[in-house]
Specification:
The complex is a heterodimer of chains A (292) and B (334). By secondary structure, chain A is mainly alpha-helical. Chain A has 11 helices and no strands. Helices cover 68% and strands 0% of the residues of chain A. Chain A is elongated. Chain B has 15 helices and no strands. Chain B has 2 domains: 40 residues, no CATH class; 221 residues, MetI-like (MetI-like fold), CATH 1.10.3720.10. Helices cover 76% and strands 0% of the residues of chain B. Classes of the chains: A mainly alpha (292), B mainly alpha (334). At the A-B interface, helix 4, helix 5, helix 8, helix 9 and helix 10 of A face helix 1, helix 7, helix 8, helix 11 and helix 12 of B.
Chain lengths: 292, 334
């Protein structure tokens, strides 16, 4: 406090001088693209079979032949980390997609029609939010089974409530605006107003949310794995971390757990950063042209 | 008063809705009978009584005796009544303080809760203490010299901290402090309070550090905004010391969003406790819930659900009250 804290003058007066995504965004985006490509092309990449035992010795440290070392069955951890990305990313992507389709629609309906519809949807959202999401996911997966579609669907259901709340708030704000009133005066149907006038505006904050949501669901899937409730067949990063985190494995080969942890950390970091930047980039209010 | 009554009604409605959902899900997706009597539950007893299925008891099959056991179990746990009536009965029992009986070992659910809940509460309490103890001084130091090296490094550090899942942090801490340096015990030790606290240090850190990062980010931003207010300039002009201004003038109005997030974060805290209990094998409420839901032991699942949902709603209620203490403007409005 010797000098008054320096604050970006642009921030202070609510004007953003230049809109740029910045260098960091492109690094984050590059990492996301690399990991998605590697996961998608995993069967054709020149890497070892992730389930083949005895590729290296038992618990070989990281080295030239096995970049990330091997686990107690001599399986190549580098190949497994790439294959683990497949399940993690699939779960992350499809659960957020489900959450946005269902939650986004519900939120728009509630925010546009108001009244009794809004009351019912808002109370349901409130109830869903009144319960820790992970506990909800645990109940559903524990009861319905541990297949990939069920795990993805469950995390999608958990994502519905917060997404519906955001979409409702955005819709509420926009349906008061002049262009919506103008459309109504021109005789547009409710459906047309919602799809043509409101949806494009609601989709913008949703887009940034996709990346942040993927980060959250990838972590949530790892959490389920620690509860013994991740996918039964195949493996995700979360499941790899669980397998590598027994005291014995940690003592003999910490790399078995640490590489999947690192992969998950960097990916979540990249998704968070890119999502944050995109949200700021598309936040029209900061440009001073949105609703005050 | 009216506000209070409305909030209480809302609290009850939410708890009822949550438990009804859990009740229905447990009964439609799982087979509660299976856990009481085992595989026999799957037998079509009507067919056995009618003689349509051959009695193959000598080969480990079904007998009329098994069917009697099934029928008795149905009777004992009221499983042959329609779902709404069973839910009504359960709520009635709950109001009288009876949480029902666990399907496993037939222990009263209240005993399970009384045994498990204190451990989880201690864990979450310690995590919050760590989080506040870390984040408040950290945020004050960063905001004191905003945009300098230390502030920038902390902001990046907090961002990174938030990207590290709690189970990953748990595994990393476990590796260094338990496996490598052997400072902390590898399992939960319950013999006395000192041991209990010691075995909870790592789990509480695992739970508290991401929380500290969240609090840090909010408090830092709010402090920087507050320090630009006129009343801070005024205080400075009066010649008050920096320390006095920071702690007596700036800190309290800056705690606002931190308190909000404290309420909102409770769900994340409970979910996190669930995982951390699993990572560090602490026999808390979360573990009881995980085990019970895998076994379809729904009296225990419902009991834990009631406790968690009620606790969550009450904390958010308390947060609303805390607003009026921190910000006199809210008090005047209501």
């Amino acid at each position: 406090m010797d000098t008054p804290p320096q604050v970006d003058p642009a921030e202070q007066f609510g004007v953003v001088v230049a809109r740029r995504l910045g260098f960091g965004f492109w690094i984050a985006a590059a990492w996301i693209i690399i990991i998605v490509t590697a996961a998608a092309l995993a069967p054709w990449l020149p890497i070892a079979d992730p389930n083949e035992t005895g590729v290296g010795g038992r618990m070989d440290g990281p080295g030239w032949s096995n970049w990330f070392g091997t686990d107690s069955n001599g399986r190549d951890m580098f190949a497994r980390t790439i294959w683990g990305a497949r399940v993690s990313l699939i779960v992350g992507f499809f659960s957020v997609l489900l959450g946005i389709c269902v939650g986004g629609t519900l939120g728009m309906i509630a925010g546009y029609f108001r009244g009794i519809v809004d009351r019912i949807i808002s109370f349901s959202v409130f109830v869903l939010l009144a319960y820790p999401g992970l506990v909800l996911a645990l109940l559903i997966v524990g009861l319905a089974g541990q297949t990939l579609p069920i795990v993805a669907m469950t995390l999608g259901i958990v994502a519905i409530a917060p997404i519906a709340r955001l979409s409702r708030a955005t819709t509420l704000a926009y349906s008061e605006r002049e262009f919506v009133a103008a459309a109504r005066v021109l005789g547009a149907t409710d459906r047309r107003i919602m799809v043509r006038e409101l949806l494009p505006n609601v989709l913008i904050p949703m887009g940034a949310l996709t990346l942040l949501g993927m980060a959250i669901t990838i972590v949530a899937e790892g959490g389920l794995a620690f509860l013994g409730l991740s996918v039964e067949e195949g493996f995700s990063w979360g499941k790899m971390i669980v397998l590598g985190s027994s005291p014995r494995t940690l003592r003999e080969g910490p790399w078995v757990a640490m590489f999947p942890i690192g992969a998950m950390f960097v990916t979540v970091l990249a998704l968070n950063f890119a999502g944050d930047r995109l949200r700021e980039y598309f936040d029209v209010r900061e440009l001073g042209i949105g609703a005050a | 008063m009216i506000v209070l009554a409305r909030r209480l009604a809302q609290l009850v409605a939410v708890v009822l809705a949550v438990t009804f959902l859990a009740f229905t899900a447990m009964n439609t997706l799982g087979d509660p009978l299976f856990n009481v009597v085992g595989f026999v539950a799957a037998v079509d007893c009507d067919a056995v009584v009618a003689g349509e299925i051959e009695d193959i008891s000598s080969q480990g099959g079904t007998t009329l005796g098994d069917c009697v056991v099934v029928a008795e179990a149905r009777e004992e746990f009221h499983l042959n009544e329609p779902l709404p009536i069973r839910y009504g009965r359960w709520v009635g029992d709950l109001i009288r303080g009876d949480f029902g009986t666990s399907f496993k070992n037939r222990i009263p659910v209240s005993t399970v809760l009384a045994d498990r809940l204190p451990k989880s509460l201690l864990l979450m309490g310690m995590a919050e203490v760590f989080a506040v103890a870390l984040s408040v001084p950290w945020a004050i130091a960063a905001a004191y010299r905003a945009n300098r090296a230390m502030d920038r490094a902390s902001t990046i550090g907090a961002f990174g901290m938030l990207a590290l899942p709690n189970f990953a942090l748990g595994v990393i801490l476990f590796y260094f402090f338990v496996v490598k340096w052997q400072i902390f015990p590898s399992r939960f030790e319950d013999d006395n309070l000192a041991l209990r606290l010691k075995s909870l240090v790592l789990p509480a850190l695992t739970l508290g550090m991401p929380l500290a990062a969240t609090y840090f980010r909010l408090l830092r931003t709010d402090l920087i905004t507050t320090l630009q207010e006129d009343f801070v300039v005024m205080a400075k002009a009066k010649g008050l010391s920096n320390r006095w201004i920071m702690f007596r003038h700036a800190l309290r109005p800056s705690l606002f969003s931190m308190v909000t997030v404290f309420g909102l974060n409770t769900a994340a805290l409970i979910g996190g406790a669930l995982i951390v209990e699993q990572v560090f094998s602490i026999p808390g409420l979360g573990r009881a819930l995980v085990e019970a839901s895998i076994r379809d032991d729904y009296p225990v699942v419902l009991g834990a659900t009631v406790v968690i949902a009620t606790g969550f709603v009450i904390i958010n209620f308390a947060v609303d009250l805390a607003y009026s203490y921190l910000d006199p403007r809210v008090r005047r409005e209501s």
